[in-house]
Specification:
single chain, alpha+beta, Alpha-Beta Plaits, 5 helices
Length: about 240
Protein backbone atom coordinates (compact mmCIF):
# COMPACT_ATOMS: atom_id res chain seq x y z
CA UNK A 1 0.00 0.00 0.00
CA UNK A 2 1.54 3.27 -1.14
CA UNK A 3 2.19 6.37 0.96
CA UNK A 4 1.27 9.62 -0.78
CA UNK A 5 1.43 13.32 -0.04
CA UNK A 6 -1.19 15.65 -1.48
CA UNK A 7 -0.90 19.43 -1.77
CA UNK A 8 -3.82 21.56 -2.94
CA UNK A 9 -4.12 25.33 -3.29
CA UNK A 10 -7.32 27.39 -3.04
CA UNK A 11 -8.26 30.25 -5.32
CA UNK A 12 -7.31 33.65 -3.85
CA UNK A 13 -10.20 35.61 -2.37
CA UNK A 14 -11.94 37.66 -5.03
CA UNK A 15 -10.32 35.84 -7.96
CA UNK A 16 -12.84 34.61 -10.51
CA UNK A 17 -12.73 30.82 -10.69
CA UNK A 18 -13.65 31.03 -14.37
CA UNK A 19 -10.24 32.49 -15.19
CA UNK A 20 -7.92 30.40 -17.39
CA UNK A 21 -5.79 27.71 -15.78
CA UNK A 22 -2.72 28.91 -13.99
CA UNK A 23 0.41 28.17 -16.01
CA UNK A 24 2.48 25.25 -14.71
CA UNK A 25 6.09 26.39 -14.64
CA UNK A 26 8.77 24.02 -16.02
CA UNK A 27 10.71 24.57 -12.80
CA UNK A 28 7.87 22.91 -10.85
CA UNK A 29 8.23 19.77 -12.97
CA UNK A 30 12.00 19.77 -12.47
CA UNK A 31 11.64 19.96 -8.69
CA UNK A 32 9.11 17.12 -8.57
CA UNK A 33 11.22 14.92 -10.86
CA UNK A 34 14.27 15.22 -8.59
CA UNK A 35 12.75 14.59 -5.14
CA UNK A 36 14.45 11.64 -3.48
CA UNK A 37 12.13 8.74 -2.75
CA UNK A 38 9.33 9.88 -5.11
CA UNK A 39 7.98 7.04 -7.24
CA UNK A 40 5.14 8.95 -8.92
CA UNK A 41 4.44 12.67 -9.26
CA UNK A 42 1.08 14.01 -10.47
CA UNK A 43 0.06 17.59 -11.23
CA UNK A 44 -3.66 18.48 -11.17
CA UNK A 45 -5.16 21.53 -12.87
CA UNK A 46 -8.87 22.35 -13.41
CA UNK A 47 -10.83 20.55 -16.12
CA UNK A 48 -14.47 20.66 -17.22
CA UNK A 49 -16.86 17.72 -16.78
CA UNK A 50 -20.57 17.44 -16.02
CA UNK A 51 -22.01 15.34 -13.19
CA UNK A 52 -25.74 14.67 -12.81
CA UNK A 53 -25.59 15.11 -9.03
CA UNK A 54 -22.76 17.38 -7.91
CA UNK A 55 -22.02 20.95 -8.96
CA UNK A 56 -19.09 22.05 -6.82
CA UNK A 57 -17.65 24.57 -9.27
CA UNK A 58 -14.15 24.95 -10.61
CA UNK A 59 -11.52 22.73 -9.10
CA UNK A 60 -8.53 23.98 -7.14
CA UNK A 61 -6.09 25.99 -9.28
CA UNK A 62 -3.33 23.49 -8.56
CA UNK A 63 -2.91 20.13 -6.87
CA UNK A 64 0.00 17.74 -6.46
CA UNK A 65 0.05 14.07 -5.49
CA UNK A 66 3.40 12.46 -4.74
CA UNK A 67 3.90 8.77 -4.03
CA UNK A 68 6.89 7.98 -1.80
CA UNK A 69 8.78 4.81 -1.09
CA UNK A 70 7.83 5.08 2.59
CA UNK A 71 6.77 7.55 5.28
CA UNK A 72 10.39 8.39 6.16
CA UNK A 73 11.07 9.49 2.59
CA UNK A 74 7.90 11.60 2.63
CA UNK A 75 8.83 13.27 5.91
CA UNK A 76 12.35 13.87 4.67
CA UNK A 77 11.04 15.70 1.60
CA UNK A 78 8.65 17.75 3.79
CA UNK A 79 11.31 18.59 6.41
CA UNK A 80 13.03 21.92 6.99
CA UNK A 81 15.84 21.00 4.61
CA UNK A 82 13.64 18.82 2.40
CA UNK A 83 13.34 19.06 -1.37
CA UNK A 84 9.69 20.17 -1.21
CA UNK A 85 10.73 23.49 0.32
CA UNK A 86 11.88 24.49 -3.18
CA UNK A 87 8.22 24.59 -4.29
CA UNK A 88 7.87 27.85 -2.39
CA UNK A 89 10.84 29.62 -3.96
CA UNK A 90 9.97 32.63 -6.17
CA UNK A 91 9.05 31.69 -9.72
CA UNK A 92 8.06 28.07 -9.06
CA UNK A 93 4.32 28.60 -8.52
CA UNK A 94 2.05 31.31 -9.81
CA UNK A 95 2.48 34.45 -7.71
CA UNK A 96 -1.20 34.20 -6.73
CA UNK A 97 -0.63 30.86 -4.94
CA UNK A 98 0.71 32.00 -1.60
CA UNK A 99 1.50 29.40 1.09
CA UNK A 100 -1.53 30.59 3.07
CA UNK A 101 -3.72 29.25 0.25
CA UNK A 102 -2.23 25.75 0.34
CA UNK A 103 -2.69 22.64 2.43
CA UNK A 104 -0.87 19.31 2.63
CA UNK A 105 -1.77 15.88 3.96
CA UNK A 106 -0.22 12.41 4.01
CA UNK A 107 -2.27 9.32 3.17
CA UNK A 108 -2.21 5.61 2.60
CA UNK A 109 -3.38 4.91 -0.94
CA UNK A 110 -5.56 1.91 -1.67
CA UNK A 111 -5.55 1.18 -5.41
CA UNK A 112 -8.18 -1.09 -6.95
CA UNK A 113 -8.04 -2.98 -10.25
CA UNK A 114 -10.05 -1.90 -13.27
CA UNK A 115 -10.84 -3.69 -16.51
CA UNK A 116 -8.50 -1.56 -18.64
CA UNK A 117 -5.93 0.60 -16.79
CA UNK A 118 -4.79 3.98 -18.08
CA UNK A 119 -2.30 3.83 -20.96
CA UNK A 120 0.82 6.00 -20.89
CA UNK A 121 0.00 7.26 -24.38
CA UNK A 122 -3.25 8.96 -23.29
CA UNK A 123 -2.82 12.67 -24.00
CA UNK A 124 -5.26 14.34 -21.59
CA UNK A 125 -6.17 12.07 -18.66
CA UNK A 126 -8.78 13.47 -16.30
CA UNK A 127 -9.24 12.66 -12.61
CA UNK A 128 -12.44 13.05 -10.63
CA UNK A 129 -11.03 14.08 -7.26
CA UNK A 130 -13.34 13.82 -4.25
CA UNK A 131 -12.59 15.38 -0.86
CA UNK A 132 -14.24 14.48 2.47
CA UNK A 133 -12.93 17.20 4.81
CA UNK A 134 -15.10 16.39 7.85
CA UNK A 135 -15.55 13.47 10.20
CA UNK A 136 -17.55 10.25 10.35
CA UNK A 137 -19.37 9.30 13.54
CA UNK A 138 -17.71 5.87 13.28
CA UNK A 139 -14.77 5.92 10.88
CA UNK A 140 -14.41 2.14 10.94
CA UNK A 141 -18.03 1.65 9.86
CA UNK A 142 -17.67 4.43 7.30
CA UNK A 143 -14.57 2.96 5.65
CA UNK A 144 -15.90 -0.59 5.75
CA UNK A 145 -19.06 0.51 3.93
CA UNK A 146 -17.14 2.65 1.47
CA UNK A 147 -14.69 -0.09 0.52
CA UNK A 148 -17.31 -2.82 0.25
CA UNK A 149 -20.12 -0.76 -1.32
CA UNK A 150 -18.78 2.28 -3.13
CA UNK A 151 -15.50 0.98 -4.56
CA UNK A 152 -17.00 -1.97 -6.52
CA UNK A 153 -19.39 0.46 -8.20
CA UNK A 154 -16.58 2.86 -9.09
CA UNK A 155 -14.75 -0.06 -10.68
CA UNK A 156 -17.77 -0.58 -12.97
CA UNK A 157 -17.96 3.00 -14.28
CA UNK A 158 -17.69 2.98 -18.08
CA UNK A 159 -14.22 3.93 -19.24
CA UNK A 160 -12.66 4.08 -15.75
CA UNK A 161 -8.88 3.70 -15.84
CA UNK A 162 -7.95 3.83 -12.14
CA UNK A 163 -9.68 3.82 -8.74
CA UNK A 164 -8.01 4.85 -5.50
CA UNK A 165 -9.01 5.70 -1.93
CA UNK A 166 -6.78 7.79 0.33
CA UNK A 167 -6.98 7.51 4.11
CA UNK A 168 -4.91 9.73 6.44
CA UNK A 169 -1.74 8.89 8.33
CA UNK A 170 0.05 10.89 11.00
CA UNK A 171 3.14 12.63 9.65
CA UNK A 172 5.70 15.34 10.42
CA UNK A 173 5.87 18.45 8.25
CA UNK A 174 7.89 21.67 8.10
CA UNK A 175 6.19 22.90 4.93
CA UNK A 176 4.85 26.49 5.01
CA UNK A 177 1.28 25.35 4.30
CA UNK A 178 -1.52 24.21 6.56
CA UNK A 179 -1.73 20.52 7.47
CA UNK A 180 -5.12 19.32 6.25
CA UNK A 181 -7.15 16.79 8.24
CA UNK A 182 -9.48 15.29 5.64
CA UNK A 183 -10.95 11.96 6.70
CA UNK A 184 -10.70 10.67 3.13
CA UNK A 185 -9.90 11.56 -0.46
CA UNK A 186 -10.72 9.52 -3.56
CA UNK A 187 -9.73 9.62 -7.21
CA UNK A 188 -11.08 7.92 -10.32
CA UNK A 189 -9.31 8.41 -13.63
CA UNK A 190 -10.50 8.56 -17.25
CA UNK A 191 -8.92 9.12 -20.65
CA UNK A 192 -10.22 12.68 -20.93
CA UNK A 193 -12.97 15.01 -19.62
CA UNK A 194 -15.44 13.71 -22.21
CA UNK A 195 -15.03 10.14 -20.94
CA UNK A 196 -15.41 11.35 -17.36
CA UNK A 197 -18.63 13.18 -18.24
CA UNK A 198 -20.01 10.05 -19.91
CA UNK A 199 -19.30 8.03 -16.76
CA UNK A 200 -20.91 10.70 -14.56
CA UNK A 201 -24.07 10.50 -16.66
CA UNK A 202 -24.25 6.68 -16.63
CA UNK A 203 -26.59 4.30 -14.76
CA UNK A 204 -23.65 3.28 -12.53
CA UNK A 205 -23.40 6.90 -11.39
CA UNK A 206 -27.00 6.62 -10.19
CA UNK A 207 -26.12 3.46 -8.27
CA UNK A 208 -23.22 5.30 -6.67
CA UNK A 209 -25.57 8.05 -5.54
CA UNK A 210 -27.94 5.50 -4.04
CA UNK A 211 -25.04 3.93 -2.14
CA UNK A 212 -23.86 7.38 -1.02
CA UNK A 213 -27.23 7.87 0.66
CA UNK A 214 -26.57 4.69 2.68
CA UNK A 215 -23.16 5.76 3.99
CA UNK A 216 -22.81 5.86 7.80
CA UNK A 217 -23.35 9.33 9.30
CA UNK A 218 -20.66 11.95 8.65
CA UNK A 219 -20.30 15.72 8.70
CA UNK A 220 -18.38 18.15 6.53
CA UNK A 221 -19.86 17.26 3.17
CA UNK A 222 -17.98 16.16 0.06
CA UNK A 223 -16.44 18.11 -2.79
CA UNK A 224 -16.00 16.82 -6.34
CA UNK A 225 -13.70 18.28 -8.99
CA UNK A 226 -12.62 17.30 -12.48
CA UNK A 227 -8.86 17.76 -12.78
CA UNK A 228 -6.55 17.41 -15.75
CA UNK A 229 -3.80 15.06 -14.63
CA UNK A 230 -0.17 15.26 -15.72
CA UNK A 231 2.33 12.57 -14.74
CA UNK A 232 5.81 14.01 -14.28
CA UNK A 233 8.57 11.52 -15.20
CA UNK A 234 10.68 11.03 -12.08
CA UNK A 235 14.39 10.51 -12.42
CA UNK A 236 15.69 7.12 -11.27
CA UNK A 237 17.87 7.16 -8.16
Amino acid sequence: MAVVLTLFWRWPSGMRKEQPQLHVQPLLRDILADIAGVREALIFTPAQASDIYTHDGAGPPLGLQLEFADILALEGAAGRAGALQALFDPGVLSETLEPTLGDAQAFLRRSYPVYEPLRETVADPCSFVVHYPGRARDINAWLAHYISGHVPLMQQLPGVRAVEVLTPVEWISALPVRKATHMQRNRIVFDNPVALTAALQSPIRRELRADFEKLPPFVGGSFHHAMSTETVPVRAR
